[in-house]
Amino acid sequence: MELSNLTLLNGDIFDANALGAIALDSQGKAPFQSALLHEFDRVVMLLRDDGGANRLVGNMIAGELRTQTLRVGLSMLKRSIITGDNNELITCLLEGDIIWDPQEVLEQLRAEVISFEPPLRERILFIEFARFLHMYVKSKRYLQAGCTMDSYNCILMALYHWARMEVGEAGHYPTPAVWEQVKSLNNSVYKLYEELTISGETMDQRIQLVQLACEFSLVSKMGDCCKWFLDLLKERKGPWSIEEILEFSELKYVEAELPFVLRKLASRSLIREIASWSDAGGGGYRVRYTF
Known about the structure:
The protein is α+β, with helices and mostly antiparallel strands. It has 12 helices and 7 strands. Helix 6 (148-169) packs across helix 7 and helix 6 runs parallel beside helix 9. The protein is globular. The termini are far apart.
């Protein structure tokens, strides 16, 4: 689409940092429509160079057409693709019509998601495993403390991340409607979801049942889902500190979960812990990790 037509489509959406634009209409045929379309006729996602101003959302009425505009930095969209933290951006990318893409940035990103080749797939599997482990551990701790509802909420989130892992392992990108994807796979994790949410057992019993399944799944999936991370640790012979590991930008997405992953991998002898004396912070042994 010509730049003049893009500008006419939605008034002021063009700026000097624009890389491309996608339009998602309320009359589209996508199986899952963005919540951003609630009471709007169209969502326009404008992809920007990250150096632009930070004005993210705008609304406009042109005749009878009510449009919501999202200004999204390229790094934010790439993060959303890997982490799944912003489902609305993913829906726009996968289901919208690319209306302007002079450098084919949007086409390339969409193709990468749809093909779901190992570089992207392995990173997503690791991130989902890390979050799955974190939520499972929190659920156990809450239940031990008698905080049943908090434990329930955490184990439900653990199942969500498990579901995303299952979809990824089946060779598909986990979409916002991930439970529909899992249901179509006839996967056991969907049965656990039903067991947790609608079973006639007490809530504590339901939580304990799912926790037991999670513990088994953690052991069975650890090697495959952590392959990308383990390969990263192999890149040098010496041990890594947590600070050095977090210098990898994509691992900052799981900064809170990384200590859980390192301890679990060490307990299963997939990596080794090396303790060395450090005078920093009053002395003590500093733990580093190696393959």
